[in-house]
Amino acid sequence: MSTAIPHEARASRSMKTSPEGAPSPRDNVTLMEIRRLLLEVSSQLGRSEPKKALRLPDVKELTGESRSQIYARMNKKCAAYDCTWPLPFYIGKSPRWWRHEVVAWLEARATPTSTSHH
């Protein structure tokens, strides 16, 4: 006859953690604990919003670039090629770009402007 741990005892026992403070894989971790850890990690990475996939019209609007300019930035044979341009991923035959990658590209290209216009 095995000894069962009452539900209250299982819920209240302290969770063992790794040296980094994350639960060890052997522990029973609840979905709420996983979500909390994911939110904590993403906030440490400086990204508080979830990933969002953009379609070509959204990328055009966000960057102000035309369709042909966007594809030229990805074409190594083109003079407008930009190795820092985020590459798309595909859902079926439709290209998508991660919003945070496009925004990071824009921010990297932005030139600081003077606050005074004298």
Provide the fold topology:
Layout: H1 7-12, H2 31-44, E1 53-54, H3 56-63, H4 67-74, E2 89-91, E3 94-98, H5 99-109
Antiparallel strand pairs: 1-3, 2-3
Q: Give the fraction of residues assigned to helices.
A: 25-40%
pLDDT below 50 for ≥5 consecutive residues: which ranges?
A: 5-15
Strand count, sense and closure of the main sheet? 3 strands, antiparallel
Proportion in β-strands: 5-15%
Q: Determine the number of helices (DSSP H or I, runs of at least 4 residues).
A: 5
Order of helices and strands: HHEHHEEH
The rounded distance between the terminal residues' Cα atoms is 87 Å
Q: Calculate Rg over CA atoms.
A: 23 Å
Structural class label: mainly alpha
Overall pLDDT confidence? 78
Explained architecture:
- The chain is mainly alpha-helical and 118 residues long.
- Helix content is 40%, strand content 8%.
- It has a domain at 53-109.
- The chain contains five helices and three strands; from the N terminus they run ααβααββα.
- Strands 1-3-2 form a three-stranded antiparallel sheet.
- β2 and β3 form a beta hairpin.
- The N and C termini lie far apart (87 Å).
- Mean pLDDT is 78; it is low at 5-15.
Spell out the key features of this protein.
three-stranded antiparallel sheet; single chain; mainly alpha; 118 residues
